[in-house]
Design a protein that fits this description.
By secondary structure, this protein is mostly helical. It has 16 helices and two strands. It has two domains: 268 residues, ABC transporter involved in vitamin B12 uptake, BtuC; 48 residues. A two-stranded antiparallel ribbon has the order 1-2.
Length: 342
């Protein structure tokens, strides 16, 4: 029988669960702040932080596949503008407007995936260039003006309303449900495991017969689709959208990227979880409520990010050092096992 591993509260355990410790630290600090745990504050914090959760989900999926999607913020803004414009200007029903905005996001994500896989252009370059394409489309569509939901407040009221007796809005619940759905797909389906394998070892994925180009392209589609859907819902939730949405204060793209790394997603792919990123973003949302000043928010988030990167760098250095000094470590282990069996 295999011996059960004993639980050890050490640096490795803390690092592996750092997103949850980050959230716990923020929630403990909130005990000493007035009005922090009121139903109104919790609903406002989670609702206002939901957009970045969509962005973090998309960025995490692409990073697990070994790529980067820098269009996430622009894609969500375009989704919001398109959805609000279709409804308030063209009279399209809310549901259809949301679906159209989401479909456009899927098409742009497919374009990113094709350029990165078929044309072998680095995803960083592809999505950096696509930022300008999307921003140009936004200016053409809106003329640079802010679009609003108009006089139809039914959907806005629904997304802002609390879920029964819970201190969360329907917008946050929909966001969380979608992220958990993506987590289930990534964790328990062959397609999700293929994304991890492609990001972790592309050669092994190719030898295993995985259609790497298609799977990678679908990772970009998931990212852009989720961001466009989240942007459309956020436009309705907030009541308005503009081309410069999210450009004041800390960039949502930077928050999503930071939360992805804090959540434990490997920069070179093959490791991560959208749930870890979601937990990190919930913690950052409450952090903003805890520290009202932007400079303090930036300081705390940067300190946590630097600590995570520094720890992983040190661990990787020592791991590579051991492998370099003892390249036949696995053979020594097998020899030792053989002696014990005699």
């Amino acid at each position: 029988m295999m011996e059960k591993k004993k639980f050890k509260l050490n640096a490795n355990f803390v690092n592996a669960n750092r997103a949850f410790f980050f959230l716990a630290l923020i929630m403990i600090a909130g005990l000493f702040m007035p009005n922090f745990y009121t139903a109104y504050n919790i609903r406002a914090v989670t609702g206002n932080g939901s957009l970045v959760m969509w962005l973090g989900m998309g960025f995490t999926v692409c990073m697990i596949a070994g790529h980067m999607d820098l269009t996430i913020m622009y894609m969500s803004t375009f989704g919001a503008l398109l959805c609000l414009g279709l409804h308030s200007i063209s009279g399209v029903p809310w549901i259809l407007a949301i679906l159209i905005a989401t479909a456009v996001g899927a098409l742009i994500g497919a374009a990113n995936g094709i350029l990165a896989t078929k044309f072998k252009i680095p995803s960083f370059i592809v999505t950096l260039g696509m930022q300008f394409v999307i921003k140009g489309l936004m200016y053409i569509y809106s003329g640079g003006a802010e679009l609003s939901i108009g006089s139809d407040l039914d959907m806005n009221t629904f997304l802002n309303n609390p879920v029964g007796f819970l201190p969360i809005s329907w917008y946050f619940l929909i966001t969380t449900a979608f992220i958990f759905f993506v987590w289930v797909v990534m964790r328990f389906t062959r397609f999700g495991r293929n994304i991890f394998m492609i990001g972790g070892n592309p050669e092994t994925a190719w030898l295993a017969g995985i259609k790497s180009d298609f799977t990678t392209s679908m990772a970009f589609v998931i990212s852009a689709t989720g961001c466009a859907l989240g942007g459309a819902l956020n436009g309705i939730y907030s009541g308005a959208a503009s081309v410069t949405m999210g450009e004041k204060g800390i960039s949502p793209l930077m928050i999503a990227l930071t939360a992805t790394i804090i959540g434990g997603t490997a920069i070179n792919g093959g490791k991560g979880s959208v749930i870890w990123t979601w937990v990190s973003l919930v913690a950052i949302a409450f952090l903003k409520s805890l520290f009202k000043r932007t400079e303090l928010q930036v300081l705390v988030i940067a300190a946590i990010l630097i600590a995570c990167i520094a720890y992983e760098t040190v661990v990787l250095y020592h791991r590579n050092k051991v492998v370099g000094t003892r390249p036949n470590l696995h053979l020594e282990f097998l020899e030792e096992i053989g002696k014990m069996a005699q």
